[in-house]
Design a protein that fits this description.
- The chain is of the alpha+beta class and 462 residues long.
- It has 12 helices and 16 strands.
- Strands 6-10-11-16-15-14-13-12 form an 8-stranded mixed beta sheet, with helices on both faces. The chain has a 5-stranded mixed β-barrel with strand order 1-2-3-5-4. Strands 7-9-8 form a 3-stranded antiparallel beta sheet, with no helix packed on it.
- The longest helix has 23 residues.
- Bound molecules: 4-amino-1,4-dioxobutan-2-aminium adenosine-5'-monophosphate (4AD) and magnesium ion.
- 4-amino-1,4-dioxobutan-2-aminium adenosine-5'-monophosphate binds next to strand 11, strand 15, strand 16 and helix 12.
């Protein structure tokens, strides 16, 4: 028998077809008329297919009437027009129970569980409507990212996950070592790294940017897309210790071009999600956050507000909103400030640019005023900072000066400096946090619920 997905058999075009559908039982209801309704979901879409199993099936009494939530089944039958809400249903010729699920212990019962509780069952939560929808939307976003860059002539490069350099200079790196922590060689005055695997202190990368710059200054337009790691001890709804980031990097490109690209990318991702996952997006809008579609429309309609950091500080200072953290020129924006700008003041995405040099990493290009750098952050309602990027410092002496300011050893970055010695060019790029993008599109309020297996301080289960 021809295998078919639940998505396929829910379409009226399939009426009259003989199919085999395989999935997991959501509910079973027995009718007095001598048959049962089984709702089956296979994860290809939010909706279930209703299967009608007649009492004259051989295993009706022995098995079908014992089916409960979580059982896996393989059903052969005919797709028929349905009298219910869905256009179709399946009239089963056979219902084969592939795996039983003990109703006494299976955690996903009919009642709704909190997202906190479901995090403890991260191995089962993809079987719920919400987490199935998140997984499908996350997949759509990744597809859009690759489509967008590939169609635009970007080359996908794989940057290393293990590195010896701290791109963001924030010291929030996880160590990678084969040394035995209990028996560190030369432990008295410090550790002798010549005994370690890489011969030097090594870490999990916080960003693929520095290596992406190498490829951009040879191949023009590139992007890297992979996992990144930050050992910052922040227990917030927007921070993970392991998250995915897409980082385009472009030669012969200034901050304006960079902002234009960021805006186009966000517009593409959200419009694809609406088009590819309409059923999931309706669910998020109706059940998770009633502002989801409205804020997506703010991304699609019109141009993003572009505001210098200095102008943003002025906006924040003149607002009559009470902020928990005071703000003044030279301090970094907190989430509450980002939300004020995007939700109250401008009601839509805002790109902030030209930040004080003192609060930004060494690689950002120093502006003529010497006080600011050509940085840009894209802020969106509900999530706040979703993209961080900049034009890069392409002038060797200025870059060396910035590294010295931030106590970075130029020997460690000799290859990065070489890019400025040999055919240097203005270039720019940014990083989009995948999970924050999924949060924005779905309206899920906690970042731990938009990645399959969240890694946060104290959590590495699964
Ligand atoms: O602003 P960030 O730190 O920028 C960079 O890493 C640059 N090297 C990117 C570049 O220019 N190529 O991080 C970029 C984005 C943030 O805007 C945010 O969306 C996300 O990555 N991000 C996090 N997401 C989840 N958990 C964390 N701990 C994150 N830190 C950053
Ligand atoms: Mg940032």
């Amino acid at each position: 028998m021809q295998k078919a997905t639940v998505t396929a058999v829910r379409s009226a075009e399939m009426i009259g077809e003989q199919v085999c559908v395989q999935g997991w039982v959501r509910t079973r209801r027995d009718s007095k008329g001598g048959f049962s309704f089984i709702e089956v979901n296979d994860g290809t879409c939010m909706g279930n297919i209703q299967v009608i199993a007649d009492a004259d099936l051989a295993n009706y009494e022995s098995e079908i009437t014992k089916l409960t939530a979580g059982c896996s089944v393989s059903i052969d039958g005919e797709v028929k027009q349905s009298g219910g809400k869905q256009p179709t249903e399946i009239h089963a010729q056979s219902v084969n129970v592939v795996g039983w699920s003990d109703p006494e212990t299976f955690p996903l019962q009919k009642k709704r569980h909190s997202f906190e509780k479901l995090r403890e069952w991260a191995h089962l939560r993809p079987r719920t409507n919400t987490f199935g929808a998140v997984a499908r939307v996350r997949n759509s976003i990744c597809l859009s990212i690759h489509d967008f860059f590939q169609e635009d002539g970007f080359l996908y490069v794989h940057t290393p996950i293990i590195t010896a350099s701290d791109c963001e200079g924030a010291g929030e790196m996880f160590r990678v070592t084969t040394l035995e922590l209990e028996k560190l060689p030369g432990a008295k005055g410090g550790i002798d790294y010549s005994f370690d695997f890489f011969d030097r202190p090594s870490y999990l990368t916080v960003s693929g940017q520095l290596e992406a710059e190498i490829y951009a200054t040879a191949l023009g337009k590139v992007y890297t897309f992979g996992p990144t790691f930050r050992a910052e001890n922040s227990n917030t709804s927007r921070h993970l210790a392991e998250f995915w980031m897409v980082e385009p990097e472009m030669a012969f490109c200034d901050l304006q071009d960079n902002m234009d690209l960021a805006e186009r990318l966000l517009k593409r991702i959200v419009s694809d999600a609406l088009q590819r996952c309409p059923e999931d997006m309706d669910f998020f809008d109706q059940r998770i956050d009633k502002t989801v579609k409205e804020t997506i429309d703010q991304v699609l309609d019109g141009e993003f507000v572009r505001l210098s950091y200095t102008e943003a500080i002025a906006e924040l200072e003149k607002s009559d909103k009470e902020f928990e953290f005071p703000i003044s020129w030279g301090t970094d924006l907190q989430s509450e400030h980002e939300r004020y700008l995007t939700e109250d003041r401008f009601a839509g995405p805002v790109i902030l640019y030209d930040y004080p040099r003192t609060i930004k990493p060494f690689y950002m290009r120093v502006n003529d005023d010497e006080k600011t750098v050509a940085a840009m952050d894209v802020l969106v309602p509900r999530v706040g900072e979703i993209i961080g990027g900049s034009q890069r410092e392409e002038r060797l002496e200025v870059l060396e000066g910035r590294m010295a300011d931030q106590q970075l050893q130029s020997e460690d970055y000799w290859w990065y400096l070489d890019l400025r010695r040999y055919g240097t060019v203005p270039h720019s790029g940014f990083g989009l946090g995948l999970e924050r993008m999924v949060q924005f599109v779905t309206g899920m309020s906690n970042i731990r619920d938009v990645i399959p297996f969240p890694r946060t301080p104290g959590n590495a289960e699964f």
